[in-house]
Amino acid sequence: MPPNTETQTFTIQNGLTRLDIQERVKQGDALFIFENKVYKVNRFMKKHPGGELAIRHVLGKDVTDEIRSMHPPRVYERMIKHYYIGDYIRDNNNVTLVSGAKTRTTSTHNHDAPMQIDWQGGMSVKAFNNEIEQLHTKHAQDIKTYTKGQKNLTMLEIRQEFQQLEQELKDRGMFECNYWRYAKECCRYTTFIYLSLWLAFRGYDTWHFILSAVFMACFWHQLVFTAHDAGHNGITGRVEIDHLIGVTIADFIGGLSIGWWKKNHNVHHIVTNHPENDPDIQHLPFFAISTRFFNNLYSTYYNRVLEFDAAAKFFVKYQHYLYYLVLSFGRFNLHRLSFLYLFFDKEVRNRKLELTGITVFFIWYSYVLSYMPSWGMVFAYVMISYMLTFPLHVQITLSHFGMSTEDLGPDEAFPAKQLRTTMDVDCPEWFDWFHGGLQYQAVHHLFPRLPRHNLRQCVPLVKQFCDRAGLHYYVYDFATGNGVILGALKSVADQVGLMNNVAKHNAGVWSGETLEEKN
Ligand code: HEM
């Protein structure tokens, strides 16, 4: 990457305080703080490989931990120097308590912490509601215990602990990628696609085609984990090569845009679970994981208002029942988002290549479909192969939907924020292949560049770090995690009911009618 010449024409300052920086940002300068130094990236921001928006969200802030965890050392040891404009003068007010528990206890309503539930499937609506009531009580207790155990470390102290953790992980070789794990995974992918194609081309009975569609879904489901690594430049560590691997897997084989995914995902890692900023939780009209979505929020990612209209009111009211059903259509939505990105986004790298990839996908997939004996079977094949990828969408939403959506301000330490907004899902080790190892999302959010296959081994060290830093580490098994999500969705859904009743009541008052009469 060529150095940004803007630093050469810019006067190096002796020191900038937080106020100076904020003033300059207001005037349009793109400044951020890294290790007590101030950097200016006005022109570089547009060329930033992690996307412009990722930087826009952190302007004026100290992003030392974000930079260290998102970039390879060459970025923060060498490249960043070109953008230096002066030292940061820390005033005493900047030593802020960021333990988070203080703020977390202020509201139990807004998903300050996930709710626990021993979830059992197939229960009646009444039993479901009872479970949810219990969930709220447990949730409140959980917060109490947490507050008692809180250590109230300063942001600086948490940061020091976090850097110690990073060093420990480096010393243990956790950042090294073990390519044998990919070799093993490739065998699994090949088996799935071989079985799928063999059954499609040689099959003659209905169940052959259905099974073929199931294997196709398994193939796509598993491939996504490697596409994810490529999107994080975590396979070879070289942006261009990993991008090409990503395009091959996501676009040519999966029919989805890796460019869209990277843009979306990089922002998600910086502003995790922020209702206005994180596209991964902006799913209106189908889901709202915070009551803040009731206020027609403006999405900084989509650049439009997310209207809480009549459709949203309907779907959100029943979102805890519709959760799995809606997610089973997730892959169709990913096509839509990919096309919107490739056709309408101004800054698309390799637009033609990605469009070619997706065209190739539709050609080979249509070829497979041409072996189906009837249109009915074509329809069934598409639905099965697409909808059965839904465990992946559950897994993705599971880590965040039940977690805090609050904005605790710019002084919240990066690890504190990631552990507040993300939870891990535990499973027996032999089942790691199913979740791709990415079920340890909290660990992944702390260190997005750490190879996915090593995440499990990092868990004990992350737990120790949390103990030292007084942070809570949320980890549930898959079933409990699902209960947490459903509980969180239900608590927001109930608010829609309440809101509707208040609206009815107000309308009644104005028209002289009582609520009972109106009902
Ligand atoms: C002068 C400052 C910066 C430079 C030179 C820079 C450079 C880069 C480079 C070269 C990459 C690709 C990394 C790779 O090779 O894998 C990258 C990715 C990224 N950057 Fe920056 N960056 C800067 C500032 C920032 C800031 C302030 C943020 C936000 C806190 C940020 C967020 C990201 C993200 C989210 C990614 C994607 C990481 C991933 O793929 O996992 N960058 N940046």
SSE arrangement:
Layout: H1 6-9, E1 13-17, H2 18-26, E2 31-34, E3 37-40, H3 44-47, H4 52-56, H5 64-70, H6 73-77, E4 84-89, H7 101-104, H8 125-148, H9 155-171, H10 179-202, H11 206-231, H12 239-253, H13 258-270, E5 298-299, E6 304-305, H14 310-317, H15 319-327, H16 330-344, H17 351-369, H18 375-387, H19 390-398, H20 414-421, E7 424-426, H21 432-435, H22 441-446, H23 455-469, E8 475-477, H24 478-511, H25 515-518
Parallel strand pairs: 1-4, 7-8
Antiparallel strand pairs: 2-3, 3-4, 5-6
The structure holds protoporphyrin IX containing FE.
Description:
The chain starts with 5 loop residues before the first helix and ends with a helix. The chain is globular. It has a domain at 6-94: Roll (Flavocytochrome B2, Chain A, domain 1). The chain has helices spanning 6-9, 18-26, 44-47, 52-56, 64-70, 73-77, 101-104, 125-148, 155-171, 179-202, 206-231, 239-253, 258-270, 310-317, 319-327, 330-344, 351-369, 375-387, 390-398, 414-421, 432-435, 441-446, 455-469, 478-511, 515-518; strands at 13-17, 31-34, 37-40, 84-89, 298-299, 304-305, 424-426, 475-477. The protein contains 25 helices and 8 strands. The longest helix has 34 residues, at 478-511. β2 (31-34) and β3 form a beta hairpin. It has 519 residues and is mainly alpha-helical. Mean pLDDT is 85; it is low at 1-9, 93-126 and 139-149. The strands form 3 sheets. A 4-stranded mixed beta sheet has the order 1-4-3-2. The chain has a two-stranded antiparallel ribbon with strand order 5-6. α15 packs across α24. It binds protoporphyrin IX containing FE. Protoporphyrin IX containing FE binds next to α4, α5 and α13. It holds the Pfam family Cyt-b5. The chain crosses the membrane at residues 355-372. InterPro entries: Cyt_B5-like_heme/steroid-bd, Cyt_B5-like_heme/steroid_sf, Cyt_B5_heme-BS, FA_desaturase_dom, Fatty_acid_desaturase. Belongs to the fatty acid desaturase type 1 family.
